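anyone else get weird line breaks when pasting these?? whatever heres mine. first is seq + tokens for prot A
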Amino acid sequence: MADNSTANTLRRTGPPRKTISASRAAASADTAGTVGTIDTAYLQTLLGYNARRAALTVISVFLRRMEPYDLRPVDFSVLSVVAHNPGVTSRQICNTLDILPPNLVGMIKSLQKRGLIARLPHPTDRRAQGLHLTEPGLQLYTEAQATATGLEQAVTDRITPAELQTLNELLRKVYAR
């Protein structure tokens, strides 16, 4: 049986991790509140940290700009999928957007109650219903889509269009398995 150090070595993947020594950690604790510049160099090497920081920035702008439409990011995503795929089923939306079915049920009911989407019989599956935008839904989505495009341009104004395309391609490689 392998000892713990061997097991830990076997579990480790990727480059060796930099660790903070106990004396450095203790010194940091002793001077808490007196640090002039916060060192986030290690965090900035982590995809999750950078993706989360970027997402928080985009989402905060999205929430402000989508407030007139009363749309959250997930609502907008559902409307977008329905707009670009008339007749799509709830199951397909769940699979595409990685939404749990019970969570989507409430969203669909809410969007339907607002008169933005309609459920119609599916042409090939009698058990399923296809989702379609209503005229008010299409109008709202068209305006919201223009707003989303504008806010994306605003939050990515420090990178070139080619860099944005590369960033999106790389991020899709991370989550598309």
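and prot B, same format (seq, then tokens)
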Amino acid sequence: MATHVKRAFKYRFYPTDAQAAELSRTFGCVRKVYNMALEARTTAWYQRQERVNYNATSVMLTAWKRTEELAYLSEVSSVPLQQCLRHLQGAFTSFFEGRAKYPRFKSRKKSRKSAEYTSSAFRYRDSRLTLAKMREPLAVVWSRPLPEDAAPSTVTVSQDAAGRWFVSLLCDDTIAPAPATTAAVGIDAGIASLMTLSTGEKITNPRHERRDRSRLAKAQRELSRKEKGSANREKARRKVAKVHARIADRRRDFLHKLTTRLVRENQTVVIEDLTVRTMVKNHKLARAISDAAWSDLRTMLEYKCAWYGRDLVVIDRWFPSSKLCGACGTIREKLPLNVREWTCDCGMTHDRDVNAARNIKAVGLAVSACGDGVRPQRESSRTGQSSVKQEAQRVTAGNPRH
């Protein structure tokens, strides 16, 4: 059965000088309005314990436009300014619900440059996209077609740190169902191998950042020698940003191809709930973990499984997948990271990563079948064994020895 979703299609475009100037002014006004509204809401709360909502900030925006100092806000389209106030309202909603930190002010140099247009502020017809306040359509490189009879609901224009311009169109799309299958796979994420599958396959980590590390170091050295505020420093900063963009693009492309393959080939995908934010605090592994992009990998698996009707099972991070013998269910007390193979007391020799992937698959299938948990707990007074060991022995009972 086909799935109907809201999907963003991102393209690169090349603005004229006039269009680039107009968009740059819009980005600046969006940042200004966002920061002023954030300051107004913060001041109102801390000084008067008063909560200011979107409607109140919208009234403030109208008043700001009428002042001589901020009259330039009327020179750009009003839609992106209203949209940034809605984004601020969303940020506060997430904060009050405990899902995010308190909203932060946007920086001219560090914050993302973007502006969102709703349907009243753009015209899309015959693959020609024209934004408000512009006479000519954008020169978009349509690298892939939009859905048939597409009617974009919003258009987001952005410029990255490398100076590249992008436009993202949000459309209704229909995702065709993936081929029927009953296969399941367990995934053990790693650094030497980006992931090890329960089938025994090891997917090599491309190490995109390491491959371009010398080029990045050279660009950063050149940047450090330039005088702050100079035009040459801006050129050097762009060179550094281009190297980072190259790394990010290649990494994203690799992960998209990999996750699409896994989702299309398997009905059930089982992964571990890794706490990447905590793991990167290990300064010896932080760079390698960041380059592996485990968070992006999980995000892609989540929405692609939802698209194609697949099942994504996430097991508890404390499940001892590496220490657990997949043959007899015994849990080894210690297993240092430098030990890549180990032999259980039952005589079974395990490849650390393959064994972990197979245990992840087995427990994930058990969890999805009966809804049981896999979080380690204290020993049971009745059996004298931890609940994880009991679960492991129950799951692995009858499994063939590999």
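btw re prot B: Residues 184-315 form one domain. DSSP finds eleven helices and 14 strands in the chain.
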